[in-house]
Structures are given as C-alpha cells and as structure tokens.
C-alpha cells in the first residue's frame, strides 16, 4: 500500500479525525473544523492525483470524515474503508460528483457532500470568456502578435463572429447554464434556445422581462425558446454551451451525428465535464470545418487531450479552471468542510442547496446544518427547518 508522504496536522488533540486529501484555499474551512473539536490532517503530498491506495493510507484505522477531490475515484473500496475506520462523512470539493459511486456510499452509510451554488457565477463567467475567446479568435491573435507576425491592419485579419442578435444555445439550463445564458443575453443581446429535462422558469421570466425592457427602449427585444430536442438547439444556435451533469444520458452527448447538424461557423463551449463531448470526433470536425470554433475547459481523459486537439487553431483550451476564482475556491472549501463537520455532529441537511449564502458569510457562524448532501434521502437524513 502506498504511504502518504507528507501531512499537515491541525489541532492534534481534536476528538474527531478529519482528513483532506488536498490543501484547499483560505483559512476559514480549517478554523471551522478545528474550532469544532476536529483534528484536521491535510495531505500535502506533491502528487497531483492521489490513487485509491494513497487514499486508503490516508483513511487509516480511524477516520470520522474526509474531504476529497473530483480527480479521485470514490467507490466501494474507499467507502468501505471509511466505514471500517468509523467514518460517516465524505464531501467532494466540487459540485459535480461523477467521480463518486453514490450507490457504494449508500451501501456503506456514508453521506456524500458536494458544493453547489458557490461556483455558479465563476463557472459561467469562464464559459462566457471561452465563448468570446473562440468567437473573436483571441488566442490565435495573441500568438500571432507574440510571434512578431503583425505587419499592420488588414481587412481580413482575424475576422470572427459577432454575437449581438445571434442565438445562444444552452444544453443543461441548471444553475450554471442559466447564469451563462443570462450573461450572454444581457451582455450581448443574444436570443436564447435551451434544452433541459426541466423547464427553466426563472430564466424564461428573465428573458421575457429583459426583452420587454429593450423594446420599451426602442431596441430589438431578445427572445427565448425551450427546445423539444437537443438537435433543435444544435441546428438553430450560433453559440452552444454545455452545462449538464455528466451521467449515462449525457456521455458523448456531442457525437459525430450531432456535430454534423451544427452550423459550420458555430462556437461550441464546454465547461461541464469532458466526456460530454466525443473528443476524437470533435478533433475530426475541427479539421474539416476551420470556421467552427470551440472553447474547452474540460477534456475526456484529463489531464490529457485527444491526439490532434492541441494543433487545432480553432480550439481554445484551458486546464479545468472554470471555478478558479479566489472567492469561489474558498467557498468550495468551506462548504466541503461544513458537509463533513455537519454529518459528524449529527446536524440536519440544509433545505435548499441552491441557497448556500448563509454558510459563506465570513462574519457570522454558519447554520448548524450540512450545506449539501446528495444522498440525504437514501440515508434518511433529517432536513433542516431553518
Ligand atoms: N468546469 C468546471 O470547473 C465546472 C465547475 C462547476 C460545475 N461543473 C459541471 O457543471 C455541472 C452542472 O453544474 P450546476 O451547478 O449547473 O448543476 P445543476 O444541477 O444546477 O444543472 C445541471 C442541469 O443539467 C440538466 N440535465 C441533466 N441531464 C440532462 C440531459 N440528459 N440533457 C439536458 N440537460 C440535462 C439538469 O436537469 C440540470 O438542470 C456539474 O455537474 C459539473 O459537472 C464544471
Ligand atoms: O464540478 C465542479 O465543481 C468543478 O468541476 C470544479 O471546478
């Protein structure tokens, strides 16, 4: 079994042993745990992605709760080890939890926390940045300048796509998809077409009200449409941004057939999870359609890109940084720590994972609740009345 190389220990005499598989930004999450009688052990091993064996060694013989990362494989082996070590609580430091086998957690009676809400605007802003970078060819133009190739203004130099008045398509209009849609609609006066399993009522109301405001000011109103099929979005939209969860229904949601029905000059953005796109098919599509552009934050086999992607000028690629603002990352750490602490203390589960602000207020004690436990129902955990 692999041995953890370096650990940082806080409040060594604390009653509850809590482990974090990574150092996380901010100090509040550490304070919240240590002020509540937790001995906190943070793995400071420089290895980027810990293996199951590494984490087994971290769990050891006694562990009450553990904070893990989206790069780790949380399944039967780890949850049964946590149970044997007396643990009842795990939290991902992420809203997405496709790296977690929730059924295995249920079997072992382990609560699984995630960190919704605090990433919404930050992730949507990165998706908007990728949209603009791809549409206006920012990275290509930057590389051109740095290579000393600029000889003066030319009518055809780096001509890209205008967004105003075009249609933005959103697949997965949940928290992040809706926030992204609002940015593109309010910022660039784009029309909306979206596909989701559920109606995005608040988003629809926002677009209607904004359209009325524009009309009252003598401008072209923006419009919205809920598509009956994903294909309708792909055919109609000029910009398409992907924001669904990753599960069986969204794996390779963008495949060769669906790429083929998109506009030849469309912009495709993915800040959800890599396997939502068949990346090899995307590389072929980018080769065949030089005016088709993508902005990618996530990749099918992270940290790798599929062969050929790095050579494509019509792709903007960044290393899974959509949630990387200081406020968000500190908030994610806080929510993850409070999920674990709340379960250890026997607190109920917060009623609305979309409204986690009370947990993020630095000037007040957080509510006595777990902010977001995805398997609360399956484990029969009580709901907070606050
Ligand atoms: N790149 C990043 O750093 C980053 C940051 C945050 C979140 N994410 C990813 O974004 C995802 C969404 O986060 P969120 O907070 O908006 O979650 P959310 O639950 O609010 O939204 C997800 C939406 O996807 C919809 N959906 C599910 N299956 C679908 C399908 N088959 N077709 C269409 N829509 C479907 C759901 O109905 C829901 O509205 C996360 O699960 C995570 O994987 C990535
Ligand atoms: O799911 C999440 O929370 C993200 O991918 C983290 O950036």
From TrEMBL:
<dbReference type="InterPro" id="IPR036291">
    <property type="entry name" value="NAD(P)-bd_dom_sf"/>
</dbReference>
<dbReference type="GO" id="GO:0005777">
    <property type="term" value="C:peroxisome"/>
</dbReference>
<dbReference type="InterPro" id="IPR006140">
    <property type="entry name" value="D-isomer_DH_NAD-bd"/>
</dbReference>
<dbReference type="InterPro" id="IPR029752">
    <property type="entry name" value="D-isomer_DH_CS1"/>
</dbReference>
<dbReference type="Pfam" id="PF02826">
    <property type="entry name" value="2-Hacid_dh_C"/>
</dbReference>
<feature type="domain" description="D-isomer specific 2-hydroxyacid dehydrogenase NAD-binding">
    <location>
        <begin position="129"/>
        <end position="322"/>
    </location>
</feature>
<protein>
    <recommendedName>
        <fullName>glycerate dehydrogenase</fullName>
        <ecNumber>1.1.1.29</ecNumber>
    </recommendedName>
</protein>
<keyword id="KW-0576">Peroxisome</keyword>
<comment type="similarity">
    <text>Belongs to the D-isomer specific 2-hydroxyacid dehydrogenase family.</text>
</comment>
<dbReference type="InterPro" id="IPR006139">
    <property type="entry name" value="D-isomer_2_OHA_DH_cat_dom"/>
</dbReference>
<keyword id="KW-0520">NAD</keyword>
<dbReference type="InterPro" id="IPR050223">
    <property type="entry name" value="D-isomer_2-hydroxyacid_DH"/>
</dbReference>
<comment type="pathway">
    <text>Photosynthesis; photorespiration; 3-phospho-D-glycerate from glycine: step 3/4.</text>
</comment>
<keyword id="KW-0323">Glycolate pathway</keyword>
<dbReference type="GO" id="GO:0008465">
    <property type="term" value="F:hydroxypyruvate reductase (NADH) activity"/>
</dbReference>
<keyword id="KW-0560">Oxidoreductase</keyword>
<dbReference type="Pfam" id="PF00389">
    <property type="entry name" value="2-Hacid_dh"/>
</dbReference>
<feature type="domain" description="D-isomer specific 2-hydroxyacid dehydrogenase catalytic">
    <location>
        <begin position="29"/>
        <end position="347"/>
    </location>
</feature>
<dbReference type="GO" id="GO:0009854">
    <property type="term" value="P:oxidative photosynthetic carbon pathway"/>
</dbReference>
């Amino acid at each position: 079994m692999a041995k953890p190389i370096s650990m940082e220990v806080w409040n060594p005499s604390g009653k509850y042993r809590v482990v974090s598989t990574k150092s996380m930004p901010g100090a509040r999450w550490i304070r919240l745990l240590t002020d509540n009688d937790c001995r906190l052990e943070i793995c400071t091993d420089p290895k980027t992605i810990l293996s199951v064996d590494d984490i087994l060694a971290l769990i050891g013989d006694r562990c009450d709760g553990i904070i893990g990362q989206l790069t780790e494989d949380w399944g039967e082996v780890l949850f049964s080890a946590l149970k044997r070590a007396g643990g009842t609580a795990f939290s991902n430091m992420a809203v997405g939890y496709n790296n977690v086998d929730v059924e295995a957690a249920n079997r072992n009676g382990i609560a699984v926390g995630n960190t919704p809400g605090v990433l919404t605007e930050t992730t949507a802003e990165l998706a908007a940045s990728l949209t603009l970078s791809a549409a206006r060819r920012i990275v290509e133009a930057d590389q051109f300048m740095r290579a000393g190739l600029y000889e003066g203004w030319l009518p055809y130099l780096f001509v890209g796509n205008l967004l105003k008045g075009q249609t933005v398509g959103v697949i997965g209009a949940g928290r992040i998809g809706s926030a992204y849609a609002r940015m593109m609609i309010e910022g660039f006066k784009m029309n909306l077409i979206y596909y989701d399993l559920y109606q995005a009522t608040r988003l629809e109301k926002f677009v209607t009200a904004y359209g009325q405001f524009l009309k009252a000011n003598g401008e072209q109103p923006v419009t919205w449409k809920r598509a009956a099929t994903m294909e309708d979005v792909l055919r109609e939209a000029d910009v398409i941004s992907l924001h669904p969860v990753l599960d069986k229904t969204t794996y390779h949601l963008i495949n060769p057939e669906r790429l083929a029905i998109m506009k030849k000059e469309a912009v495709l953005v993915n800040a959800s999870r890599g396997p939502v796109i068949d990346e090899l098919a995307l590389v072929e599509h980018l080769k065949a359609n030089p005016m088709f552009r993508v902005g990618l934050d996530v990749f099918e086999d992270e940290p790798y890109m599929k062969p050929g992607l790095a050579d494509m000028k019509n792709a903007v690629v960044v290393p899974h940084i959509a949630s990387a603002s200081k406020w968000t990352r500190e908030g994610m750490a806080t929510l993850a720590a409070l999920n674990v602490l709340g379960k250890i203390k026997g607190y109920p589960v917060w009623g609305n994972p979309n409204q986690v602000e009370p947990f993020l207020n630095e000037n007040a004690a957080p509510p006595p609740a777990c902010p977001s436990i995805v398997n609360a129902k399956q484990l029969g955990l009580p709901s907070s009345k606050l």
